[in-house]
Amino acid sequence: MAKILAVDDSTSMRQMVTFTLKGAGYEVVEAADGVEALDKAKAQKFDLVLSDVNMPKMDGITLIRELRTLPAFKFTPILMLTTESTGEKKQEGKAAGATGWIVKPFNPEQLLATINKVLG
Amino acid sequence: MTASNAAESIVQGTDEKNPAGTESGGSQYLTFVLSGETYGVDILRVQEIKGWTPVTRIPNTPDYMQGVLNLRGTIVPIVDMRMRFNLERIEYTPITVIIVLSIKSESGDRVIGLVVDSVSDVINVESENIKPTPDFGDGLNTEFINGLATGGERMVMLLDVDKLLSVDEIQVLSDASEETEQNADKPDD
Amino acid sequence: MSIDVSQFLETFYEESFEGLDTMESELLGLDVGAADSETINTIFRAAHSIKGGSGTFGLNAVADYTHLMETLLDEMRDGRRQVTEEAVNILLSSVDVLREMLTALRANSELEVDRISEAQQQLEALLGTAGADSAAEVESGQNNKDSAERGWRISFKPHLRLFKTGNDPARIFRELQALGDLTVQMDASDLPEYSYLDPEESYLQWELELKGDIKREALDDVFAWVEDDCVINITPLEPEESEQGSAEEADKTEVAAVAVKTVERRVGERRQENRRKGDRRGSANNESTSIRVGINKVDAVINLVGELVITQSMLSTLGKDFNMKKINKLLEGLDQLELNTRELQEQVMRMRMMPISFAFQRFPRLVHDLSQKMGKKIELKMSGEQTELDKTVIEKIGDPLVHLVRNSLDHGIESPQQRKEAGKPETGILSLHAYHQGGNIVIEVADDGAGLNAEKILAKAIQQGIVQEDVQLEEEQIYELIMLPGFSTAEKVSDVSGRGVGMDVVVRNIQSLGGSLEVTSEAGKGSKFIIRLPLTLAILDGQTVAVGDEDYIVPLISIIESIQVTGDMFHTVAGKGETFRLRDEHLPIIRLHEIFGGNPNTTELTEGLLVVVEGEGRKVGLFVDDLKGQQQVVIKSLEANYKKVDGISGATILGDGSVALILDIPGLIRLSNQHATDDKFKKIA
Question: Which of C351, C367, C394 is the last residue of a domain?
């Protein structure tokens, strides 16, 4: 069973993401900010990381950059959750090592379709 | 506790006599005795039966309000039914029991205890056997009576327990008979 | 397949309201002109989260509105826009509008469309982008005119670093394959010699043919994540090219489709199950309000329960084989049990505790708005915001605090002009200070304004018949007059305070929480209102008093002292009943047995005790037989199963399991006055 790290400072978004992915049979670990996510990433392996961009403590871009320095996350798909108004963030994220992005707002079906695609 | 054991055995006894009990369309009533008369309360409202224990008096309340009791952390008011019905008071004895009931009020469900002479039986009453309360004249408050159940030679007055705490604020005796008629139409509750 | 997102709405509302509170307090803390970028970022983040969530959960009006706020904040964050007073005010009112929108949506009531669009126009005017803000959203629609009936030829040459972004050509091929018939031709010409090969880099390139009626847009979607990391050339297939589909490939696609369907079904089933769970959760939520408890508090309770279990098992082992030689061990165990119980009680109570900042947080905004309205310059200073007290107390202290703060703003702090004339700085200071003292929390509302005017208060009190004309009062006693019912000095009813609600209501509210209010003031220097509150409403420190064989609990906070009176201390005043002299005051005596009935051991004042108590600013001597112990009691409601009884605030359960009633001192004093009046009428009749 693929294991996904879901990072978002918004509880409702995390709930929605977790509910959707768990419902599809994925194992999900949540983190509320970049620092928490990085701690969890150092402790266990994930098959995919899903991260919000704007977060307190450590933002998503920094998180991605940090994750890419960890040997276990060298090739792991990392998707950003981003809004259309932060288009430049996509480029910043790509430069930091993001695999791709999911544009907010998204619905559970879109999320699941993308995740399924990436994890094949 | 002897009183609750007694009540339990009564319930069981009835079930043996009438195994079809609750399925027959009527309702079951716990009956108790007050000054020789038999009264009934809807068994579904009865939470427990316990022996009399001293209560804490609440100042400036009607005489029939004996006081409050600690029932596993809840403060429960205790009503003396003899005094509620203006009957002669008697000394409490070891067989004096408190029937703990849940009643419905505007502000939600409440728990109260009724002090009665003794608990006697659980009876099954078919709805067609419930008759409206006749006008007893001045002597008896009929506001609390939902109807009369006649089972064999006995007559049981069925109590409208929800009114026990509320009616004393509005003593409108003239409306009593009118209200009883309305209540007689829905004897099940 | 669709997942019902409404089950996450409640969480979304909760966090959005929190986000709005954050935005509001940060906006108020923003220094116009020299704004701190971290502060703006925090505000931006809050708006951004609300926007993201509202879009996801289908609250489009909220999403549109927050989009404008976010744009404005983004510009501020990047330094493209100055942080002006105007912008801050518009953002503040936007916070209000959003709060209203969310409240209405949560309650399923109508949105105030006019107000929202007016606020939206304000924001748009500020942004100078009315109607143009959707440009970004249309952007992706430019390229998709192209569509090829027969299919596409794609040349795809990834950059070396492709793998390092977690991307994989195989995934891209899989997606393309799902769109149509795909043929892949690999070109390995760029592959270096083995010794130079880095397995983490991508050297291959591909020529792809995708057949079918496929929109160009769909292809762009597939390559969207990698388009900057590779060279992609997409051209429509020429019509004359032959069609050759691979049967094998088609099979694979089918298998994939079946797999997807299974997943879908599984998701569907789980969803239904979860929705049922969600329903139950939802209905439970509506009945009882929730409380957020820090995990450390829960852990502390769990630890203590662990200790309690150990003590219990120790005692039960001891009990199974007990003899008098082990009495010391038993006593030790009981001590331990007492300790465990007390600590557990404290910890559990702490779970209901919240920092007072929840009550304070509205004041920056309130002070900001009111001082602007009144043309006063006021700086708000808050301290001790982390002081914790019971959630219920916090909820109920809000209104009294607002009243006191408004009062200080309106009547306390002078206008800048007046302050200058008085040689004070133009900016007045209003301070809110909270701290623990003993078992109480103290909240001080202080201002450096003109102070209370004792002469004016006294004159007003005499005019209103509250005190006798010839009365001699200390200054402090005069200040206390403002707390009496019916007292008001406000010369004109202002918009800010003095809207018919007097200080007596504040006092009554505080007292209903078991607290007290005190005033100190110094002419020209300012005044201070000191609120003392119990930490919790669930427990109070009580003094047990006896009347005959009945026990009552008197809240310790109302007791001033207990005295044994001698014959020369009391006398009867015609028409006013019994009084006694306590130093230079004459206080009325209330005989508890006369008000509440019962059989006292004595009716001789000299043989019993007078407990001097204070309620709503009035002191009386409560005559009882005797004092018993002091203890903490857990307050139980009489109303839950019966009704409110005058003079009684509740009940508690004593150590022996019996019930004792807790006295409501202000209520008792009112009851006694009524009693006295009734007696008078009886005598006349």
Answer: C351
